[in-house]
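From the pipeline queue, job 12 of 40. The input is one protein chain; the requested action is below.

Action: predict structure.
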Amino acid sequence: MDAFSLVPGALPLQPNENHDENFMTQQPATPTKTGYDVIQGYLRSLDSSPGVYRMLDADSRVLYVGKARNLKARVSNYSRPGQHSPRIARMIRETSSMMFLTTRTETEALLLEQNLIKQLKPRYNVLLRDDKSFPNIMVTKDHAFPMIKKHRGAKKQKGNYYGPFAGAGAVNRTLNQLQRVFLLRNCSDSDFETRTRPCLQYQIKRCSGPCCGLIAESDYQASVRDAEKFLQGRTKGIQEALAKQMQDASAAMEFERAAAMRDRIKALTQVQSAQGINPQNTAEADVIALHRDGGQACVQVFFIRANQNWGNHDYYPRISGDEDASEVMEAFVGQFYSNREPPRMLILSHGLDNDDLMAAALAEKAERKVEITVPQRGEKAELVQNALRNARESLARKMSETATQARLLKGVAEAFDMEKVPQRIEVYDNSHIQGAHAVGAMVVAGPDGFDKNQYRKFNIKDESLTPGDDFGMMKEVLTRRFQRLLKEDPERTLGTWPDLLLIDGGQGQVSAVREIMDTLGVSDIPMVGVAKGLDRDAGKEEFHRTGKPVMALRHNDPVLYFIQRMRDEVHRFAIGTHRAKRSKAIGATPLDDVPGVGATRKRALLAHFGSAKAVARANLADLKAVDGVSAKLAQTVYDYFHENG
């Protein structure tokens, strides 16, 4: 890598899950030592270059990732006892070796540091645990009648993107109102091309019916421009134009058209009011506020775009409690924007130790200027105070929920005679229809509630299973799950092993799973089967454990409600996964297997011929006549069906 250079005299490491090939490690003279003596042993070979360093324990697990303007000076600080917080002192005592990577600039070191923190999740770093993407509103630009839709993920399709919005709910509300105001279509291009009469959206006045020629292209394009002006915050002219159209229609005694204009003005007013506090002098910014209490932290992020508040989202970064606010805020900002495009301004509740450096790093990523400010008065300060209030209230709710969750986990341990309180409960279920489209599902619960990032789905692959064999499906799911755990974390040090298994089913499922666990040599994990009683009423669940009598909990026991919620959650996840698999199978056609035929060409062929069967029967000349299908691709399609048909 041109951007980075290795520390002179370092020895290369073999890449593994904790190290990448660009890093080098230097072993101190006495590798069995830990702490200050180990760190001092590195000072002789370090220079004043900027770079990134890692601190590792005796098992080569990464304890901490940091960046430095001057590596030698930074490591020297760690080598002097008596100057560190309890957290850093504890980390130094555990340090057995270090790794270094020099960079050309401190900005490059900052970017690399944040990427490595997200990748390695070191124990002593402040860690942003929620890494979800945010949705945008997209207006397509590859069609004469553009559609407006929700978009999440990479911006690959040609079009204009507006966002981010804080969540799907905010996007859906805005889209719903925009369709009422501007009557833009939200159907797919393939649906648009095959319509012969208007759909329900037209009937309920959410679309102008361009698919059936009920609006001229020029008029539709004018509506698209107005919608984009609204998303850019330029709403005054739109409202004035709609008001004039309403008055003109009323004067001409076209009362139905006037009523339609009135409804559109009302919808426009509703979407503006639904966006909450809309700042007058802040066009584009993220407002980020941090509140800490009791060793926990909440960060609220408000998204301001086009002078409009597009919602907020709360985060709970992992902290130890002795970091200062600037350290937590800098870690959050660096990790939050490591895979997101930053806005033109960040408005923060607390300053950063290196705000100029962070601004330079974000500007380099965005390829434009990014301003970081901590306002003391005015509109921006009011935005921060509002975000701080939300952060304080969110953290209070979170702490209350965490305390409740801790009591429930303790209750589970007591109910099932466990030696320790479970920190990770895995719940399993299957879903199928007479064996078809069978899937297994796993959900995870712990001290913070359901951990959706850890949910897993399993497509049942064993074709020898009898359709509907729930025991066999559960065996396959658990076999695959624990074979992977044994491969990836045999020492059980990464926190991915469950403390308790909940199986949806009775004694039969429990026996089947126990057989698998014994075969794999992991029979030390407690396991409980959750089955409904004889009359199958919720609240009368029976719990099955190997070698112990069937038991039940009191009807009003909070632990019973907790187990029911976990069982219902795995049901929901399993059924949703099954339905998605079934829908995909229903929508599949033989064209999916033709080399070179993607979604666009598939739509073109189906629109031209009407069905996949007709495509298979078409001659070469007809295939060549399809728009967007080259002579070469037509030959490929023809050969596929006539050689394999």
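Job complete. The CA atoms of residues 10 and 556 lie 63 Å apart.
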